[in-house]
């Protein structure tokens, strides 16, 4: 068997597959070149989903005629020259292979000139490079790509319909539009203008490339820690979708895909959205170049961080901060743009669910809106001001509960008088919320207090459960459990979290493990699953008698949590009944 070196043409075609997967990848590479050339205006014309024509014109730095042929040579680039440059890459491109790859699977023309320089043009057809010819000086560059994949029928066969390719192109352009709101961008497809964007703020750009309705549904993100900074916007609950696709993370202005970072964001949203719901976000991460490696894959959307977990935590904190204002950000009720009628039955929908969590008004809103639509807008205005008052009331609630006006009813609910009426709190979910946040904090950095058992307990497990226990043991220890291996599949429990009742610790430990095993997949991380299982099982239950002091302490701690109104599963914790509502019901007003 003879082993041969492949011809250059064949080599190019093989590696072209890595960079040029489909028309949208050509658009991406050409846009990246235009942006690297510091263009402030870029225009993209495509026909037939990019199958027939892709043309990108910019007003950037341009290429001198003498260098035009070099631009099409593989591994020729003006962007890096030394190994050191590769370690801290400032440009979108650096591999010097895009133009070469594109030219090996299509017909390419390029026209370019630098500011004040001569214009030149070059054509590549069937792999043959023409001479550079003089051309009008554009001050910028125009690259035209025709007949994509004419010589790679296998790839052509795998291309989707022009419509699908067109959508992929729109998505690529949208990404860069979001990363560079100060750049004018035009996208024309089959003579239709898809985008015509002028320099604007990121918020305006989001409205322009997503939907004008997005603009009012955004929470600003602005955070920095050490060398990292994160800015951008996170969508409120009106922008939740049931499938992913509208999550944008830019690292030093490069669109990247990274599951861990996404999950950092999802975790911040976790207590207010359901599993299977995806929030909208556009986040710009600025990280020192030395902390990342973008040279992982030819597409350059995959990156490696030196300290991925650190970025994860910074990202999560930035979102938590932004989302803390979510109580003030009211879903826009007048405009049920997302097609949901105000219907109590409609519990599955997050939009309505958000309201279900609120208060007494909600029942009224849903009821009246079904019957008397003319009254609806009045109610909505009322509901809106109610919600915006919520955050303010929180402090009055906080101080208004004293031992004198707090009662337990049916060993299940805590009822108390407050200035504006009365509140009813579900004791189990309230405690669960408190423990969940405390446990998460413990896993993060602040271990919870443990109480040593007077009589250590020996517990034996089935072999598989025992191995799970060993997996989660470090987490359980941070929460306050202390266990020692004590023979086969057996542990000695020496301490339990101070919060937990004495006497039933064995049962609770078993329940935590069962809960963890059953629900692990619903959580973004194992730690969160441990925290949630602990919170659920260690919390007081319906039926537990609470003293006034215990109730008071619980309520105080509840209001110290980030989300006193929702339990980790999205159920309401507090129901409020205003004095007006009571007066109305008794027909006093
Ligand atoms: P890379 O972007 O990785 O350097 P490319 O093959 O995409 O590799 O481009 C090769 C070179 O051609 C670039 O380094 C740059 O010097 C030049 N070039 C390509 N497109 C443009 C453009 N639109 N404006 C100015 N220079 C360009
Ligand atoms: Mg490039």
Fold topology:
Elements: H1 8-19, H2 23-36, E1 41-47, E2 53-58, H3 68-71, H4 83-87, H5 98-104, E3 107-113, E4 119-125, E5 128-129, E6 133-135, E7 140-146, H6 153-158, H7 162-179, E8 184-189, E9 192-197, H8 202-209, E10 218-225, E11 228-235, E12 247-251, E13 254-256, H9 259-269, E14 281-286, E15 292-293, E16 304-305, H10 308-323, H11 350-356, H12 360-371, H13 373-400, E17 406-409, E18 413-418, E19 421-426, H14 427-444, E20 450-460, H15 463-479, E21 482-485, E22 490-497, H16 505-519, H17 526-538, H18 548-559, E23 574-578, H19 579-585
Parallel strand pairs: 1-8, 12-14
Antiparallel strand pairs: 1-2, 2-7, 3-4, 3-7, 4-5, 4-6, 8-9, 10-11, 11-14, 12-13, 15-16, 17-18, 18-19, 19-23, 20-22, 21-22
Helix pairs in contact: 1-5, 2-7, 7-8, 9-10, 12-13, 14-17, 14-18, 15-17, 16-17
The protein binds adenosine-5'-diphosphate and magnesium ion.
Residues 29, 33-34, 37, 58, 60-63, 71, 76-79, 93-100, 141 line the site of adenosine-5'-diphosphate (ADP).
Question: Top keywords for this entry?
Answer:
589 residues, alpha+beta, nine-stranded mixed sheet, five-stranded mixed sheet, 39% helix, binds adenosine-5'-diphosphate, binds magnesium ion
